[in-house]
């Protein structure tokens, strides 16, 4: 035998209206979360994925980003150039020169893989997001535009003061110290490094030097008369 449904509760007239008004009142007293954009700019997290900036000088045209992009929306063109040997008798080298670097943001899904895989720190996230276009073709940003986005990339967070010095910094410091030591050890290096201001400050420097033409012209024509007792 099928179970009998529970008996329906008696309806109080006007209870639906009271419930609706209660919801309205609750919502009215709650703090609004509406963003007043574009009158008020949103407060974004510093690492927001807005757009990708290209630091062209670091790009070696290795093509890793273009190969790893799941959407195939990075377009890179390059050509090879022969670099003459650095020292006589050395070998010529060839290097890639970037001709085109573009990202189609109408296809990009902002996964960040290209930035992660770039081995030379040439790509960065910028929190800028106001680059909507009326023509979808304008969403392909060429290298000049990608470079402009670099100005909006936030600075990296400061290093932990207790952290070990990065190896790049340590290597640069070591090279600078070595160069300074070499320059100091060179004979006459100290004299050569003397600035004109230091030379001018040396006692007698002005007397030893030949006076300038203007100074010679200003010298009196006649010598002053010798003082008494002088021969
Ligand atoms: S963020 Fe992802 S989809 Fe966009 S260009 Fe980079 S790899 Fe491609
Ligand atoms: S992975 Fe980096 S260095 Fe290589 S082509 Fe892309 S941006 Fe340039």
TrEMBL record:
GO terms for molecular function: 4 iron, 4 sulfur cluster binding; iron ion binding; NADH dehydrogenase (quinone) (non-electrogenic) activity; quinone binding. Its cofactor is [4Fe-4S] cluster. Binds 2 [4Fe-4S] clusters per subunit. It comes from the Bacteria. Residues 181-218 have a biased composition (Low complexity). [4Fe-4S] cluster 2 binds at residues 69, 108, 111, 114. [4Fe-4S] cluster 1 binds at residues 59, 62, 65, 118. It is found in: Cell membrane. NDH-1 is composed of 14 different subunits. Subunits NuoA, H, J, K, L, M, N constitute the membrane sector of the complex. Belongs to the complex I 23 kDa subunit family. NDH-1 shuttles electrons from NADH, via FMN and iron-sulfur (Fe-S) centers, to quinones in the respiratory chain. The immediate electron acceptor for the enzyme in this species is believed to be ubiquinone. Couples the redox reaction to proton translocation (for every two electrons transferred, four hydrogen ions are translocated across the cytoplasmic membrane), and thus conserves the redox energy in a proton gradient. This is NADH-quinone oxidoreductase subunit I. It comes from Streptomyces longispororuber. The gene is nuoI.
